UniProtKB/TrEMBL annotation:
The name this protein goes by in its record: Uncharacterized protein
Length: 188
């Protein structure tokens, strides 16, 4: 079995679940692959000495676009973004208000790469409308916001609602969500 060798930060993130640091570490084995030598030499330098990569990874992993200032924050540990049923419901909800998944940004805080820091979320996405789908405001150090209601801030308005899975099992939650969501998304 051969060793897997890479210096690609995205590949390393997918393969490793811990952050590793190395200081004054030297490779003593003779290396025959020049590609590996280059990667090893670069990766063993102090952070200030490292050659910058062509493109640093984004601070957040998300889908869609933050350009329209509409952000959906969720926490689905078992999926990249939504369960299949929730994704379908999400797309239909957006379609009903003349939006697509390309018009909005969706960030899953269950992804270990994404910071659970509201200030950093605001700085990165620069949203004007934020929908918390099953994410408790307190987990982002926000004041209490009742379900299916919103709070207007200086820059953005935050709408707090249930996850789609919660709405699937309770028709009243789904109705309450839809009535408030339409108002929230159509009012400027």
């Amino acid at each position: 079995m051969s060793n897997l060798l890479t210096d690609n930060p995205i590949a390393l993130q997918a393969l490793m679940n811990e952050t590793l640091f190395s200081i004054d570490f030297a490779v003593e084995d003779s290396v025959t692959s020049s590609g590996f030598e280059q990667a090893t030499t670069n990766s063993l330098k102090a952070p200030s000495e490292q050659v910058p990569s062509a493109q640093a990874p984004e601070e957040f992993i998300y889908q869609g676009s933050p350009e329209k200032g509409i952000l959906f924050i969720l926490r689905y540990p078992d999926f990249d973004y939504f369960s299949p049923g929730a994704e379908d419901a999400f797309e239909k909800s957006l379609s009903a208000i003349q939006l697509t998944t390309a018009d909005v940004a969706v960030v899953n805080l269950a992804n270990s790469h994404n910071p659970n820091d509201f200030k950093r979320i605001m700085q990165f996405f620069k949203p004007t409308r934020i929908t918390l789908l099953g994410v408790e405001p307190a987990s982002l150090v926000l004041p209490h916001i009742a379900h299916n209601s919103y709070m207007k801030g200086k820059v953005a308005t935050v709408f707090n609602t249930y996850s789609f899975e919660e709405m699937f099992v309770d028709l009243e939650k789904k109705k309450a969500f839809w009535l408030e969501f339409k108002k929230f998304m159509t009012n400027e």
